[in-house]
C-alpha cells in the first residue's frame, strides 16, 4: 500500500510492502535490554491483553511472546502482516494479526491492558487515534511508545550510510537523529498522563550484510526508491561497506520509551 504524507519525506510516496521480505530478515534487531526495559515496568506480561499498532512483521509481539501476554498486532501493510503471520507460525506462536490502519482498527471498548506503538507513532493521525486508543484501553491501561535509531553524528559507519541514502532520497526525514524523548502531541495529555520515560544509548551488532540489509529495509531506500535507483544504491552501499566496515561491527543507537496512563 503506497502512502503519501506531507509530514514525512517531503511527501514522497513510500510502500512498506516493497521491502517486507528484507524487513522480516533484517529489522529484528532490538537487543535484550530493549525488551528488559518493558518487562521491568510490568508491561506486556502474562495475564495482560496487548495490542501492537504498526506491528510490521510482528517484531515486538514475537520477541515478547515468551513473557505470556495475549497479543494482537495490526499494520496498514498487508505484505507486512503476511510476513508477521509466517514468522509467528514458524515459531508456533499464537498471535493474532490483521491488516488495518491505526485510525481504522475496530475492537470493543476496554479490550486491552496495554497498547504498544514501536517505530510508528509519528505516522498516525493523532487527533483520531489518541481518543480511540483511550476507549480501547481498560481502566488504568497503558500506552507504551517505543523507538530506536542509529546515531549518525556519533557513529562513523551509520553516518556514511546515511549520507548515501540522502544522495538518493534527499528529502528523507529519517536522517539526522540525536537522542531525545519521544515527542507527544498536545491531544495526548487530554486523555493520558505521563507515567514514565527513558532514553538510553546501546550498541547493536551487525555484519556487513546485515547492516546493508537493515539500511535497504528503511523507508528512504527499499520502501520508496524505484527499481533502477535501488539497484544503484545497492551497489554503491556495498562498495561503501567494503571500504569502511570490518566484517563484524557494532552501530551506536539510542532507544527511547514513553509510558502513558489512561486518565
List the helices and strands and how they pair.
Elements (H helix, E strand, L loop, with lengths): L19 H7 L5 H8 L9 E5 L5 H6 L5 E6 L2 H13 L5 E4 L12 E7 L7 H11 E14 L5 H13 L19 H4 E16 H9 L10 H18 L3 E15 L1
Parallel strand pairs: 1-2, 1-4, 2-3, 4-5
Antiparallel strand pairs: 5-7, 6-7
List keywords for this structure.
single chain; 263 residues; alpha/beta; 7-stranded mixed beta sheet; 34% helix; 25% strand
Describe this structure in words.
- This protein is α/β, with parallel strands linked by helices and 263 residues long.
- The chain is 34% helix and 25% strand.
- It contains nine helices and seven strands.
- The chain has a seven-stranded mixed β-sheet.
- Strand 4, helix 5 and strand 5 form a beta-alpha-beta unit.
- Helix 1 packs parallel to helix 4, helix 1 packs antiparallel against helix 8 and helix 8 runs antiparallel to helix 9.
- The longest helix is centred in the C-terminal third of the chain and has 18 residues.
- The two termini are 35 Å apart.
The gyration radius over C-alpha positions equals 18 Å
Kindly report the average pLDDT value.
97
| Main pleated-sheet profile | 7 strands, mixed
Q: What spatial form do the alpha-carbon principal axes imply? A: globular
Order of helices and strands: HHEHEHEEHEHHEHHE
Amino acid at each position: 500500500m503506497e502512502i503519501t504524507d506531507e509530514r514525512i519525506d517531503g511527501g514522497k510516496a513510500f510502500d512498506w510492502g516493497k521491502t517486507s521480505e528484507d524487513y522480516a530478515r533484517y529489522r529484528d534487531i532490538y537487543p535484550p535490554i530493549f525488551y528488559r526495559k518493558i518487562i521491568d515496568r510490568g508491561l506486556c506480561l502474562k495475564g495482560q491483553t496487548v495490542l501492537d499498532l504498526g506491528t510490521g512483521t510482528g517484531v515486538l509481539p514475537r520477541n515478547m511472546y515468551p513473557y505470556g501476554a495475549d497479543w494482537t498486532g495490526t499494520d496498514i501493510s498487508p505484505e507486512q502482516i503476511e510476513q508477521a503471520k509466517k514468522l509467528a507460525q514458524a515459531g508456533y506462536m499464537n498471535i493474532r494479526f490483521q491488516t488495518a490502519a491505526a485510525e481504522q482498527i475496530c475492537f470493543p471498548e476496554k479490550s486491552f491492558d496495554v497498547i504498544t506503538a514501536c517505530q510508528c507513532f509519528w505516522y498516525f493521525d493523532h487527533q483520531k487515534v489518541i481518543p480511540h486508543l483511550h476507549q480501547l484501553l481498560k481502566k488504568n491501561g497503558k500506552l507504551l511508545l517505543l523507538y530506536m535509531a542509529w546515531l549518525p553524528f556519533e557513529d562513523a559507519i551509520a553516518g556514511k550510510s546515511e549520507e548515501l541514502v540522502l544522495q538518493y532520497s534527499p528529502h528523507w526525514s529519517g536522517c539526522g537523529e540525536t537522542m531525545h524523548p519521544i515527542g507527544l502531541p498536545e491531544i495526548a495529555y487530554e486523555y493520558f498522563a505521563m507515567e514514565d520515560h527513558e532514553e538510553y544509548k546501546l550498541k547493536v551488532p551487525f555484519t556487513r550484510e546485515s547492516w546493508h540489509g537493515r539500511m535497504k529495509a528503511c523507508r528512504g531506500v527499499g520502501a520508496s526508491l524505484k527499481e533502477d535507483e535501488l539497484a544503484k544504491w545497492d551497489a554503491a552501499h556495498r562498495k561503501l561497506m567494503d571500504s569502511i566496515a570490518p566484517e563484524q561491527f557494532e552501530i551506536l543507537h539510542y532507544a527511547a520509551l514513553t509510558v502513558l496512563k489512561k486518565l
